[in-house]
Specification:
homodimer, about 300 residues, alpha/beta, Metallo-beta-lactamase, Chain A, 7-stranded mixed sheet, 5-stranded mixed sheet, about 25% helix, about 25% strand
């Protein structure tokens, strides 16, 4: 959690940003101003970023993009960096992409999505291991949440493999082909494995409670959710198209989320504890984030 | 000194920025990324800014402008804020002025200066109390330093005023008119006062040693000067159009500067002390700045 403020940064909280390390992917969500320096505090290099995802073009969610592109260039990051963002923000993307003078060596791949009348969900990329999907949210300006889904797969059962005398490269063959001849008999992968559900991480911000938020959160192992306000300011939350910690807790509970991370706190509050308390009243596993806290995606169930 | 890094911020140093409080003026120079939050640490409000001066449009000197304009708007700062910058950077100014979506209530007055073939010095504003002048520097891109000059004035001499029985409003009359009838005789202000030289503050960054830097520094009470490198990296300093701490010290010495403040340090170095040591070998009064240090303009000589 690189930054946990909302519109106004404080001594305690930098503007918003979070970095998700996911196997070979490094996905940076919503780099607000100062994310480059927060990365220095967190020990993250620009070269670890493979994708940047922007939910919307309010400043606290995107202004850090300007210097990050320049840092990616300065550090001569060798791989392309895809930047996903709502197409309606194209003009802001372009301003931030070239906000000041620099010697541009960055391999930035713009991936605007959506457009007039597009309601989603949209698949933004898909590999053999995972896919990234966006769902529309309900904010004052066009805003989309993100969900990274590991592919469902199968978990091999060692005792069944052993009973068939299968090991090493032969197991790999079976995994790739789905079927293998063993002692003259066709063994299907289903006989020696059980389904393994892919893990899912969702990012929901900024929004009122809405269908998109629920779809993003559905069965997520980890949900990072804005909770700009406490319930005492529920009217402000509604008026400004934000959520309370209580609403984030309810979202997590109703969607069967495992771990909920709260962030994007209004400057009017101090410590994170009251946010955690409020969400924990309805959901067990809650982290109310402080800057530079690392949160693990919960281990697989079994 | 809101930030003291150069191109790359570190855990120790934010990107460049400095705020000069000068009677009713609040002049922010070169707001790099994250200046808004550094202001929170320094206890500075957006409403204290009356002018913003940008030396050039490399990111570490201007990217913080995007969020500052938005913060000035959000805080409903009631006065206009003049932004001075080299006209050749107009396109970058405009991108930073409207870098993301916000409800724009800011009274920003753009003051581009210079242009094709203009070599300066240029007077950017002049009031009864002070004037702001820009001189061209010698960097890889067009870059200008700034100098704020208090008007020369006269210091009233109490014993001479007393000898004439002058006090209170009558002294004010004499100061305004320059002459006053006392007991039937015309008293000129020169008879009861001595010249008082105006104070001068100069900001020199980024540049090699050059005529502009010398003109800016000439007789300054306070000179804030980039010293990106130590003399051990003098070749890099020259190659990248920067200065060493030693060169900054020599500039201050030769120009009769009173207090020298070093800033804009390369990420390759750690503590500020070696910079101070190097400049102190040639100039007595040196502050090698750390972030959030406050430096006083030296009191008048007499």
């Amino acid at each position: 959690m690189l930054g946990t403020a909302s519109q106004v940064p404080t001594q305690r909280r930098n503007h918003n940003a979070l970095f998700l390390r996911w196997d070979a992917l490094g996905v940076l969500f919503d780099p607000g101003e100062g994310t480059q320096r927060q990365m220095a505090f967190a020990g993250l290099a620009a070269s670890q970023i493979t994708h940047i995802c922007i939910t919307h073009f309010h400043g606290d969610h995107c202004l850090g993009l300007a210097s990050l592109v320049q840092r990616i260039s300065l550090d001569r990051v060798a791989h392309p960096v895809e930047i996903h963002y709502p197409a309606s923000g194209q003009v802001y993307f372009e301003r931030l992409r070239n906000a000041s003078i620099f010697h541009d060596l960055a391999d930035i791949v713009p991936r605007p999505f959506g457009g007039e009348g597009v309601t989603g969900p949209l698949e933004l990329f898909a590999t053999e291991e995972a896919r990234l999907v966006a769902y529309p949210l309900d904010h004052r300006v066009e805003c989309w949440g993100y969900r990274l889904e590991e592919r469902d797969a199968r978990r091999m059962l060692p005792e069944r493999l052993a009973a068939l005398g299968l090991r090493g490269p032969r197991v790999g063959e079976l995994q790739r082909a789905g079927v293998l001849e063993v002692d003259g008999r066709q063994i299907r992968i289903e006989e020696v494995s059980e389904p393994r559900r892919g893990q899912r991480v969702a990012v929901v911000m900024d929004t009122r409670p809405c269908d998109g938020a629920r779809a993003l959160a559905d069965g997520a192992d980890l949900l990072v959710c804005e909770s700009t306000f406490l319930s005492s300011e529920a009217e402000d939350a509604h008026a400004y198209f934000h959520m309370t910690a209580r609403q984030a807790g309810e979202l997590a509970r109703d969607a069967g989320v495992r771990r909920l991370v709260l962030t994007h706190f209004s400057q009017r509050y101090g410590a994170s504890q009251p946010f955690a308390d409020e969400a924990r009243a309805v959901h067990a596993d809650v982290v109310a984030a402080d800057d530079l806290v690392t949160v693990a995606v919960p281990k697989r169930h079994d």
